[in-house]
Amino acid sequence: MPTEQQLRQKTAARENLPENQVGAKATGDDLAEVQAEQNMKGTPNNPHNPQATAVKESYKPGPTPANSTEGTNRDGQGAKGNYTAQRIGNDKGSINFGKIHQNAACTKGVSLNTDDGNHTMYMDIDGKRKGWTTFTGQGNFQLRHGTDNEESNDTIFIEAVNGNIDIIATNGKIRMQGTDIELNAVGSD
After folding, report:
1. Which of 35, 109, 111, 117 is deepest in the core (most CB within 10 A)?
2. Are 118 and 137 in contact (CB under 8 A)?
3. 3-state DSSP call for residue 140?
């Protein structure tokens, strides 16, 4: 297993490659990929693509007005406002900073969203969910790590410093598989 110093040296060597320098021009497969992206239908404001379509009107960067009720349920006393919210995205997805949830209960510090709003990740920074990180989606959720680790390494680590860990399969089974399964109860009762 490489040492930290060896990893740092490999990273520095990679950063010093000519193709990784500011102003370097793409060549070969990289150039072909850049050209394909430039000519991709739907790429907004692309001078190389006369077929470009505009980004959905609902996706616009800039501040979220205080107590805005446009397309949301933000009316009433205590509705949140945010003058510094920003959005970067297109008709397929976006990244938002400081966006207010539709019911105005919390502010998302950062969120990643697909265009339908059902596939998202957000980190709440205030309200009842301050400090929460939430992933939602219609399909599967996968974590896969450790391809370079040894069998004895702790590759995925989940810890609840205070509170419980709940694993719920509302309409399915819970399956655990491994060369061994260890369950250790360390309570004092």
Report:
1. 111
2. yes
3. coil
DSSP secondary structure code for residue 82 in this structure = B
How far apart CA 36 and CA 31 sit, in angstroms, is 9
Residue 130 in tokens:
């301050």
Structure letter (DSSP) for residue 153: S
Cα 147 to Cα 87, 129, 150, 151: the distances in Å are: 35, 34, 8, 10
Copy the structure tokens of residue 59: 């996706």
At 167, list the tokens: 């694993």
Note the pLDDT tens digit of each residue in 75-115: 444 556 677 888 888 888 889 898 887 777 788 899 998 88
Residues composing the chain: 189
